[in-house]
Structures are given as C-alpha cells and as structure tokens.
Amino acid sequence: MVELSIIIPIYNEELNIPTLVTRLRPVVEKIGLSYELVFVNDGSRDASIQLIKALAKADDRVRYIDFSRNFGHQIAVTAGVDLCKGNIIAIIDADLQDPPELIEEMIGLIKQGNEVVYAKRRSRKDKSIVKKTAYKTFYRLLARISNVDVPLDTGDFRVMTRKVAEVLKNMPEQHKFLRGQIAWLGFKQTFVEYDRDVRAAGEPGYTYKKLFQLAFDGITGFSNVPLRIATIMGFVVSGISVLLIIYALLSYFIFNNDLPKGWASLMIAVSFIGGVQLICLGIIGEYISKLQTDIRKRPLYIINETNY
Questions:
Q1: How far apart are CA 203 and CA 200, in angstroms?
Q2: What is the pLDDT of residue 266?
Q3: Sign of the dihedral defined by the CA atoms of residues 48, 49, 51, 56, in that order
Q4: CA pair distance 140, 161, nearest whole angstrom
Q5: Among residues 118, 113, 291, 276, which one has the least CA distance to residue 194?
Q6: For the chain, is the Cβ count within 10 Å smaller at the N or the C terminus?
Q7: Beta pairing, strands 88-91 & 4-10
Q8: Does pLDDT of 9 surpass 80?
Q9: pLDDT digits over 96-105, tens only?
Q10: Contact yes or no for 191/154 (Cβ under 8 A)
C-alpha cells in the first residue's frame, strides 16, 4: 500500500531530475511513509524520459507516465492525480524553485487534520522583473474579480489528501487551473510560507504565451467579470451613440446648423464603436470556445507508455 505519492510534471528537465531525486529521497525517508515518485513526461524533447525509465528500472517506487505529446503543465499534474495510489499526494515541479524539504512540514499539517496545504511565496528570486510584476498583478486581479477565494502568491506546489484528489478527478474540464479548482472545493486548507528560489538549470517550460493562457484560463474559469465588462461597454457605447443621434437631429432640424463633414470624425466614431464590438465579441467568443472544447469530450491526455 502506498501512503505518499509525489507528482512531478516533467518538460525538458534532464538537467534537474538527478538533483531533484537526490534531494527528495532523504526527505521521504525521513517522513517514514511508503511512497512513490510519479513522473509525468509532458512531451519532453530532451532525454528526460530515458532518465526517468532508468530510475524506474533501478527502483520500483519510481513510476512514470509518458504522454504522446505536450499537453501542458496543468494536464500533466492532472494525469498524476488520476493515476497515483497514495493516500497523501504532493505536487512539486522538477526545476527546484520549490524546496522538496518543505514537504515534511506540509505533511505534518495534513496529519493535523487539514485536507490541503499549499506553499505561499514570501518572496521570489526570478531574474525577470517583468515576470515577477506580472505574477503579482495577476494574483491580485484574480482575487478581486474571482467568484472563488484563490490564495495569493501560490502555485501548484502543495500537499492534499486522497479525498480532495477523488473530487478533483470528477472535474474534467479541458482548460485546467488547478489552484483555482482546489480553492473552489473548500475543505480545510492552510499554508506554509517560503522563499522561492531561481530555476536550478535549463529553460523554463512556461513561456510568456503559456503564462498568459494560464492567467486567462484562471480568470475566465472562475469569474464572469469579463462578460459583465463587455455588457457594460456595450451599454456605454450604445448610450453615446444615442446622444450623438439626438445631437445630430436637434442641430439639423431645430437649430438649422450644418453638421460637420469629413472623414476624421466619421472614422473615429466607426473605429471606436467597431473596436468595442470586437472586444466584446472576443470575450464572449473565449467563453463559448471553452464550452465547445468541453462539449467535445476529448480525453484530457493520451498516454504513450506507463509502468502503472
């Protein structure tokens, strides 16, 4: 019987896997629970899967799930949750920005009766000021507009019970935002604080494009505010248009004023109204697209190979 599963999503992490395992093993041995290390290879283009298979051959506590292609970090974590066997489940990235040593303290809080323990960043040592500012802005924006109280400055580094994992498995939406889903579930949750380190080696899997997509999934998945903004913008523009029509009619029929002619004023009005309409249609389209994706009921991921 497996008591602890540690899920590790992998995307081009061949430089970090050996160091991660070296740091993880003393931690789990000290905790004293039977365990499995669940590596989910998310379409890596380097030698990550070969390294993982070698580890699995030498240690039957190492499990791997190899995707047929890259499905994304959130889906990789989801696959780990779906297949893992432990009563307690930890999620940690392989880049060593999150310290494996913190898992012991987090499991201690689980044993005290908490269902979820997440790691909250006191500070982060990212080299990019732009990325650091973007993260901080996103979490605070999401907290203001979301229907769910998503904890500030947290990622997917967390520990949860089997009860939480079983409920998560019944939430199969395609556009995953796990930290939001887990917050939505409720249950008794707490946190530990830590200082997030820089990436140990290699290039980050999350590009600015992927980070933007994750942020957009979080906002559209847990808030209707963008739709309300689109509605308000529609009413505002409609109101302005009605006022302009009334002004034009009064000027022409009552005050006998010649209306100003020229392309400039016409193009400004048309561009403004057209721009607002396109923004509103785009926002609505994003929500409809997510609904369409979920209605198709395609599998979240395809497994190429696994030793489960």
A1: 9
A2: 64
A3: positive
A4: 27
A5: 118
A6: N
A7: parallel
A8: yes
A9: 888 999 999 9
A10: yes
d(CA 90, CA 92): 7
What are the DSSP calls for 80-105, one per residue? Answer: HHHH---SEEEE--TTSSS-TTHHHH
* Length of the chain in terms of residues written: 308
State the Cα–Cα distance between residues 231 and 234, nearest whole angstrom. 5
Angle at the Cα of 76 from the Cα atoms of 74 and 77, rounded to 5 degrees: 65
Q: Considering the domain 4-206+298-306 in this protein, what is its CATH number?
A: 3.90.550.10
pLDDT per position as a tens digit, 231-273: 676 667 666 766 766 766 676 667 666 555 554 466 556 656 7
Question: How many angstroms separate the Cα of 60 from the Cα of each of 35, 38, 56, 130, 297?
Answer: 10, 11, 6, 42, 34
- CA 213/CA 174 separation, integer angstroms: 13
According to DSSP, the β-strands at 154-161 and 116-124 are: antiparallel
Which region holds residue 285: left if phi is over 0, alpha if psi is between -120 and 50, else beta? alpha
Q: What distance lies between CA 79 and its chain's CA centroid? A: 15
Residue 152 has pLDDT above 50, yes or no: yes
Instruction: Look at the block and give the residue holding tokens 């890259």.
Output: 70
C-alpha to C-alpha distance for 48 and 11, rounded to whole angstroms: 8
Contacts of 244-252 with CB under 8 Å at 24 or more apart are 244/269
How many other C-beta atoms are found inside a 10 Å radius of the C-beta of residue 158? 26
Q: Tell me what the mean pLDDT of segment 130-140 comes to.
A: 66
Sign of the C-alpha dihedral computed for residues 24, 154, 196 and 203 taken in this order: positive
Q: How do strand 154-161 and strand 88-91 relate by DSSP bridges?
A: antiparallel
| Backbone φ, ψ for residue 125 (5° rounding) | -100, 30
